[in-house]
Fold this sequence. Notes:
By secondary structure, the chain is an alpha/beta fold. The chain is 38% helix and 17% strand. Strands 1, 2, 3, 4, 5, 8, 9, 10 and 11 form a 9-stranded mixed β-sheet that branches. It has a two-stranded antiparallel ribbon with strand order 6-7. Helix 3 crosses helix 9 (249-255) and helix 4 packs across helix 6 (140-150). The radius of gyration is 18 Å and the shape is globular. The model is unreliable at 1-71 (pLDDT under 50).
Amino acid sequence: MRWNRLAIDERGGPAENRREWGLGKDSTGKPLSAGLENSVAKPPSTRTEDKKRAAMTSQGMGDWKDCDGIAINETIDRINNNKFKNIIKTMINVIGLGYIGLPTALMMASHGVEVIGTDYNKELVATLNAGKTTFKEDGLDELFAAAVKAGIKFTTEYQKTDMYIVSVPTPYDKFSKKVDACYVVAAVKEVMKVCPDGATVVIESTVSPGTIDKFVRPLLVNGSGFMVNGEEKHINLVHAPERIIPGNMVYELLHNNRTIGADSKEIGEKVKQYYASFCQ
Length: 280
C-alpha cells in the first residue's frame, strides 16, 4: 500500500508539482520537504519565535511579543470572506474535543464549515454547550465565540456524515516508548457503526509511522470495506497529523504547513478543502 501525500502551503493554497511521497513546493519555489526538515531541526521555541517575528514584520508591529492577537484577528476578519463557504457543503464530525480536536473544530466552524464536535465526556460537552471553554489558550475564547456564532454544536453522539476527523488522545508509554492507539481504534469503530458508505475518516491524532496500517486498517476488509448489520460499506482512511504547540495553538493552526496522506488524490483533495478553509 502506497500513500499519496498532498501539501498545503502556509496560505492554504495548493502546493505545486505534487508527486507521490513528495511535499511539493512553497510560494518561493523551495521544496516543502526541505522546509519541514528544517522546522524539525529547530527547537519548538525557536520556530514559534521565528513565526511571531515574521508576523510582526508583515503587520508592521514594533514588538514581536505583542503579536499573539494577530491570529485571532485574522480569523475573525476572514470568516465573512471565506472562499470555501460555498464549496464545502458536507458537515464534518470532529471526534475528540481536547487540546487538538477542540481548536481544530472551532477553527473550521469559524471559517464557514458546518461542524459538530463529539466527545464521550458528558461534563466536557455540557461545559462547551454552556458557552465555556475547557482549557486556556491565547485567543481560544475569541475563537470559541466566533465558532458558536457560526453555529458549531457539541454532543456525546457520533453523527452520520461523509467526513470525520478523529482527534482522540494517544497516550505515550515511557517504558515501551510507544503510543497507545486504542482510543483511535475505538473511535474508528464507533464511526463505522453510523457512517454512510464512502465516508472519509481523517486520523489527526499523533501516531507513530505504521500505526494506521497496523491497528486501524485491519478493522477493514481489503483496506476499506466492512459489514454493518449485514450491509457492506467502505470508508476512506486519511492521515493528517497535527503538530501544533500548546501555548501558541491558534496562531500555529493558521500558519503551520499541512501534510495529508490519502489512498487517492481525489480523497486527498477533498480533505484539503477543509483545512484550506483556514490554513494560511
